[in-house]
Amino acid sequence: MRAQFVLSEIGVGLRRNLTMTFAVIVSVALSLGLFGASLLMRDQVSTMKGYWYDKVNVSIFFCNKNDAETGANCAKGAATQQQKDDIKAELNRLPLVQSVQYESSDQAYKHYKEQFGDTPVAGLVTPDQLPESFRVKLKDPTKFKVIKSAFSERPGVQEVQDQRDTVEPLFNLLNGMNIAALCVMGLMLVVALMLIVNTVRVSAFSRRRETGIMRLVGASSFYIQMPFILEAAIAGLLGAAFACVLIVGGKYLLVNNWLAKKIQVINFIGWDSVAAVLPLVLLIGLLMPALAAFFALRKYLKV
Predict the structure, then answer these.
(1) How far apart are CA 276 and CA 251, in angstroms?
(2) Is residue 72 a contact partner of residue 157, using CB atoms and an 8 Å limit?
């Protein structure tokens, strides 16, 4: 009998405040959709970092005959074979170095032509203008500064370059977008909480006669508050369900059917990451409105 009464009160409350309930569902859906998307974007950035950082190298460029005026290291002209052999031997002795690969000027020119193709820029460079280099693969790419400090001032070394610098701006952009999404999500979450509290207030005010009768017959505070809390929880759960639909739809339509075909060099996150986020979205959608309603009712339904 008690359960039937609570369910009937929930139905009455949802019908009386249909417009505000719909607003709560939409705001919760948008805020939790952004929340889930932010979590997935964070995983995507981590996946991309692991993929690209594993492929980039540290490049040690040697002086050639055209670099005599580029710096003190190249004042004596092109790097000698002895200088190259000494540097390679030291690199092979370092525990953090995984492999060392030599690239000649001709190989560098070939890669340059592959990159720029038949563009006008390609004809401005000749093989003798491109430096020889060692492509150093590190076991831990974050240890780049160890290589730079050890070899950047060595005679015959023009420059020590970390290829991570070429991809770091992309990761900074993605992190910035993630922070922006979190800020919008926080704003939407505040709006959703305000709507939930206001909906509970209106619902409690419209049913003040029923709650007054329940007080007189000795009903407990929890029993009086239960229909209002469940109303908020149901609205939040519906919003969370719509958020899950948005997340799954975004993964299927935006990522799988568009971005994955347009940008094939990126290893996008899989459905396992999405499946890990959805239960969290549903849990927050259920608990957040229920707790907001509980604390709001402590003031408006005192027994």
Answers:
(1) 13
(2) no
